[in-house]
Records
---
Amino acid sequence: MNINTLVCGYGNIGKELVRKANEIGLNVSYIIKSDGVYTIDAGGVLSRVGKYSELDGSFSGVDFSRISVGFIAIPASANGLASRKLAVALTQKRIPLVSCEKSLFAYYPSNLDLIAHTATVGGGSRILPYIKMNMPKGFRVHHNAVIHTVLNATLNFIMSSEKSMEEAVAEAVSLKYAEPSAGGLLTTLNSEMDDTLLKTCIVMYDCFLTEHTVNHNFVLDPNAIKVKHLDETSLAALKAERERYRYIVSFSRKPLGERDVIGGFSFVINGWFVSAGFKRFDNNAYLWSLKYVCGPGNAALIFPEGKYPGIGGPNCTVSPGAGPGPTVRTMIDDLRQLIAEKRIVRY
Ligand SMILES: NC(=O)c1ccc[n+]([C@@H]2O[C@H](COP(=O)([O-])OP(=O)(O)OC[C@H]3O[C@@H](n4cnc5c(N)ncnc54)[C@H](OP(=O)(O)O)[C@@H]3O)[C@@H](O)[C@H]2O)c1
């Protein structure tokens, strides 16, 4: 692939993007970090060639006419502003984008139509297209429809590990599934719960709120949805019965009347009831099969008419959702799709 790229963010994902680009013959023309614009040589040495301002998203030292595609791999920011500024600056230059950064879409859903975003939810599992492709006709309006999902592979890795929760978090950080967190176990779990809210908003917009089903008066503002974080008491309760619980996000047309939920969030929008939390699965006919989702996995169980497994059965996907390798593979798949759609104009 003789394509010139610009990579925004040179952390876990950005470095893997550059490695993969070298492997498949993409040219990395520029790298944007929080403190400037860089080029990278064959030995991986960065040289600063220009400025980048986080304040207004302006660049210097970039020859945009050479760029065919941009990758956004920077951390989520308050209200998605940091990546929004990058996205606006690059799309104004008519540069197609591939992003794995969630807040860009959770706060600016119109970007879902403009920017390739498969890796934003479940890095490598492609769970967004899976859900869309497997929702039967009429599912969005069916009054009994239910879908249960594991959207956060890092939380699933921690919950399904046989090690202590502290050890599982340390392993999730060392495998680059989770951000390092100074606060340890509690802070990591709570920040992954916040992250799941952004993923949930993307699933809601991308899979459920279509042009035809949406009531245009709705507002889905992640800032207005309160995540009930864990504290020492609820963490102790969760630890005591960890093998019975997973962090599950459910979408349904009616309230599910759930019990045994620890932490999380819930909201109602456009006729959909959305609830997330550490949910007990071993005593629930809908959820029990999620015990087979182990490690950094994502899953979706789709019950078109709210029926229990065995009667029509659920559709289910289980696949690795976190980690730089799977995430970057999905971003490159998005790039290939852009090429197939002839949206990459400069080679
Ligand atoms: N890890 C996974 O499995 C996974 C899966 C799916 C999606 N993601 C998403 O991938 C993104 C990147 O994650 P990561 O683990 O690679 O992060 P990371 O290791 O913290 O690296 C972040 C990089 O972004 C740069 N940066 C930060 N703010 C910036 C800004 N405003 N403008 C330009 N560059 C900026 C940083 O620059 P400096 O080097 O100057 O600090 C750093 O190079 C996140 O949004 C994450 O949610 C991760």
---
Amino acid sequence: MLICLVTYAQNWQTNPDATFCTFCWRTFGLAIFVGMICSDRKGKGPCFEIKAKKSGLLGGTEQVPVLELRQISKNFGAIRALTGVDLSLEAGEVLGLMGDNGAGKSTMVKIIAGNFPPSGGEIFVDGQPVHFNKPVEAREKGIEVVYQDLALCNNLTASANVFLGREIKKGFGPFKWLDHAEMVRRSGLLFAELKSETRPRDLVRQMSGGQRQAVAIARTRLSEPKVVLMDEPTAAISVRQVAEVLDLIRRLRDSGHAVVLISHRMPDVFSVCDRVAVMRRGTKVADKLIKDSSPEEVTGLITGAINVA
Ligand SMILES: Nc1ncnc2c1ncn2[C@@H]1O[C@H](COP(=O)(O)OP(=O)(O)OP(=O)(O)O)[C@@H](O)[C@H]1O
Ligand SMILES: [Mg+2]
């Protein structure tokens, strides 16, 4: 207001016709406009600063990993499934997680997804410590999983499985019922996007391995997750569908999602991943850029022929 009065007084000498109201409007209007273009809606500070930080222009501001594990351990009674595992994942990155049977890959995924707590260590999402007690809490933080056993309900249809726990309802007030038609329509669109021939109304128990895989993957596409964990998504599907799943992973990466791909298939990891981490007997023995490694080296790391890299 004071600024308005002073500026108005100065301006009055040159333009005595301008009213005080017009002047206030111009000054405040300009201030609001500048505020709108410079402020982030959630109050994280001016947008030019955020953009400059992201592009590194302000210097000294490193990109915060979207997911970080520090010294994660997991014991099942006497079995030490994981020992002191560190892992970090950036947005828009695909990490291949490899290792022999029983190396601890699925255990790691289940800890990240909130299926069970770690015995030790910490998890950070966007730099903030998180403690998940159940999978829905991890999902709320933007973590979606395609489990190795797919975790589908065989007695339900494909569309019911896609929307399990996130059913679409219609109605008003307390009178709500499931909108099956909309769920069928939307899951049909998701299957089309995956180029899968899965029909939304088919029962999962009548489906092939590839069709089940498509149902499990379609489920992760319902939200806009930050991290998608895929535990052996190409283990039991046809060659054509492998290519489609790999394409889907590339699309996820290109739209800024971080993906962890657990796989025993060396060609898949080397064709789609930016980085590879190798697990052996519950410890991480390598974490390298794909361009700095080779299938031979990774095979040696998995079997123990090469100790660490
Ligand atoms: N719920 C559980 N109870 C007891 N032991 C478990 C449990 N889950 C996993 N383990 C043990 O933890 C170890 C790691 O298992 P995990 O399933 O993580 O291996 P993996 O790397 O995913 O193997 P695969 O490639 O065969 O899927 C194994 O020795 C396994 O027997
Ligand atoms: Mg596993």
